[in-house]
């Protein structure tokens, strides 16, 4: 049971990453690799601040802002200096590796003896349960710590998703969506598309960094290598989400991305349980995304062929 | 209203593909005037429109619009003054956004966009009303994505969007060329209605000699990056499609003469 709750918790935390990837890849069609660096950036900023006594919510917020700055750099490289979007992301991601090491001062910052959002939500949970450390749910023993962390994370994700949805329906948010959809039109309507892209990639990386900040607090450490392969992970979640909801209605795609992240994490947990070596995890993820990308093409070709026959 | 002064634009300059699209074009358009632009392929008529819209900056010359020198203004800044409809029906709308979201983007053309709610009730009310006047049955489908509409419907909506806030200048770039004849007629009727109602100053590029002869109060004909004819007033009103075709024929003949003359000279002197 504890394993299942842990899986859900990580799935929820990484759904913020999925939302970030959704913004860059789907709304702006901008293949943004910066995310690999900004996961770690969010984690290292939040962890370092917490070690120095900053309150966990504030430290997480600082992680979010740091991610936005990184995204804004990538967006600026692309829009002002006309560098290919992939390369812009790679440049910033590479630079972030050194920056993250500088922020942390070493390659790993443990958070075990520090107050984090995880320990804080555990305190609240224990208070609510009047001091009990576990309760039974449908016959299973559930520790209050696990349950309250999951509840807190789920609440955060629901809130963030709702905020994102509302934002994308404001004047500014709509202009951003239209920028990814049709640049010619949005310019003709008086929107500076370069600013929109910079801002959009910034928000995307803010979400990704927040996800990293929460992940560090949940697992109890920030590590300089924790971001590797995260973009592909997020992309896999978004693709699963799209397959689940099967529509491009805005609200549903956001819900889909969150669900996709949780389900993908579940799949991974099951695969690991069945004896998949953790070393193969990234390989399997990459193969999965590859398949998810080509299957629709393949199906379309097949349908065309049968239509001709 | 609009003053284009000795504007030149060369594409791919310094390469074998160099194209001198505009060669010192001068143009003055009075407020409320509706000018038709026709010309041969590659004559620079779309380039002229795009240089006014700010799609690119011109190499030489100046452009003044509604009292502003907009020569160095980027495209999105000029959009405060200009409404545009493109040739490609896909260019003017955002396919994954709904009809109402597209219109609400147009309702803030050239204004700041903040965290205000995009779809205010009063705005949606006006949308239902104006979209209803298109007689396309779209007023009940405002929440549908634009991507599901036909080219004619999109072009009608694009026109509505371009004129939602009254533009100082309306630019129409062969906006019916990609439509079937029936949709084209519909969009033209709508164009006439909107321009007459809001007394819009308009620049319209067209391929249709019929449209060119019938619409507008002034017509210019372009060839090789220059304006070669300018019909105004009574002269414009008398124009028939055949007259325009005859002018094109003249141009073609002059062209052949030029080439054969050049060839003859080359043979004799080189």
Gist of the model:
The complex is a heterodimer of chains A (309) and B (270). Chain A is built from 12 helices and 4 strands, in the order ααααβαββααααβααα.
Q: How do the strands and helices of this protein lay out in sequence?
A:
The complex is a heterodimer of chains A (309) and B (270).
Chain A: H1 2-27, H2 34-51, H3 56-79, H4 85-104, E1 108-110, H5 117-128, E2 134-137, E3 140-143, H6 144-168, H7 171-181, H8 183-188, H9 193-219, E4 221-223, H10 230-245, H11 250-273, H12 281-308
Antiparallel strand pairs in A: 1-4, 2-3
Helix pairs in contact in A: 1-6, 1-9, 1-10, 1-11, 2-3, 2-4, 2-9, 3-4, 3-9, 5-6, 6-11, 7-9, 10-11, 10-12
Chain B: E1 2-11, E2 19-29, E3 34-39, H1 45-53, E4 60-65, E5 68-69, H2 75-78, E6 82-85, H3 99-106, H4 121-132, H5 151-162, E7 169-173, H6 181-198, E8 202-205, H7 209-214, E9 218-223, E10 226-232, H8 233-238, H9 241-269
Parallel strand pairs in B: 3-8, 3-9, 6-7, 7-8
Antiparallel strand pairs in B: 1-2, 1-4, 4-5, 9-10
Helix pairs in contact in B: 3-5, 5-6
Supply the key terms.
heterodimer; A: 309 residues; mainly alpha; two-stranded antiparallel sheet; 77% helix; globular; B: 270 residues; alpha/beta; Rossmann fold; six-stranded mixed β-sheet; four-stranded antiparallel β-sheet; 9 helices; 39% helix
